[in-house]
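Figure S7 source data.
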Amino acid sequence: MNVAIVGAGLTGCLLACYLGRRGLDVTVYERRPDPRGGVVERGRSINLAISERGLDALRRIGLEERVMADALPMRGRMIHPVSGPLDFQRYSRDGDLAINSISRGALNNTLLDAAESAPGVKVLFGHRLTGLDPATGTMTFETEQGDVLAEAGVVLGADGSGSAVRGQLLAHGRVEESLDFLDHGYKELTIPAVDGEFALDPGALHIWPRGTSMMIALPNPDRSFTCTMFWPTGGTASFASLSSPAAVERHFRAHYPDVVPLAPDLADDYRHNPVGLLGTVRCAPWHADGRVGLIGDAAHAIVPFYGQGANCGFEDVVELDRCLEESGGRWERALPLFEERRRENTDAIAEMALANFVEMRDKVASPMYRLVKNVEHRLEAALPGRYVSRYALVSFSTVPYAQVRRRVRGQRRLLGTAVAAVVTGVLAAGVSALRSSGRRRGLTRR
Ligand code: FAD
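Tokens for the predicted flavin-adenine dinucleotide complex:
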């Protein structure tokens, strides 16, 4: 049976590698030209944090080393306040666990190479899907030579959050969808290398938390940093509200003062780089007619604040491959089974990713947050394997996301008690110190 994968992005390429290894005849259709030609769309470089879930999927087919060759480990968050010293917060107690910064383009290119060299896989660029009959698997593609028809026994939509495959299923009444856009968008800036060196610590994910908005920066192998601003799309403190280079500079001097001397092209980047939208895609079902399926962002795009979109898409691939194995290669069984197993997990990470936006932009700078993280690291050390923080479960394990959510709810009480004990202990120590200093000065009532 021939399989069509629509979209040669991260999920589509990895899926092609997995299905090729199963001996299937796979054609990947991609609307863009071959990205290995080199040109990256301005302001859309996007570097990703790849963590254990993504690495696990790559490891299973021998791709981890190749991908990690281009990656930079980040062992914690570096918080940049408006004034005062930087604050490095390790992701794990010993600082031994890291998430990995990698350019989406470089990762995509590595996966394209791997897909093209997998047995039975071919990739056709410049093919934009514009029509699909889910009952027959007949697809229409817009190409430079005009419209082209193709047929496949199975059609898998790995064509991202704005999926045309999902759009076709919607038009044929096979799925329902909801799109919840955030009232924040994103824009990229660059901090170049200074004299060939990183301008900031490359071992950290940098965060400028500013209450209702924030900026982050991830290191690149060429020693630059890609910064991503997550700002409101409307209102007085939005992207649109800074309409001149002087206004941009004034705003950055007031709110991100340490960035100004490091980003010489700040005003130009700000003016020319596009604002991207962010949102959560939910749809059901993820399959139709036993032969069409959705995977990755096409089925469940999420906001990027847990750094999990691509990791989750890679996990999808492992699960779909497993379902196919367990269904004896019968897609009409594998596709519903895949949805049954994955949905509660993708719902869970969608919710956790939204919650993490508030944590990153607002809470990470507070002393209480630092105290809680400190206590969490101590609990992890005192109860190894029994207490594991949510961040560690999401980023450094392959525990299913829904289980993570349940487990963290269970752990919350223990954390609350431990934090209260520390606070009470600190208060008690403070009171006793006050009392003894009072006694020394003869002030304490007896
Ligand atoms: P996509 O990467 O969107 O790929 C879809 C492919 O389909 C594209 O190649 C597209 O050209 C093609 N296509 C689209 N329409 C058609 C059509 N009609 N016909 C043919 N082809 C078509 N994830 C992480 O894991 N970690 C992170 O740190 C992280 N950070 C992020 C930061 C930002 C600012 C954003 C926006 C996202 C981030 N993500 C992160 C999410 C991650 O980028 C996505 O989850 C991931 O790219 C999804 O992969 P995909 O292959 O499913 O979809």
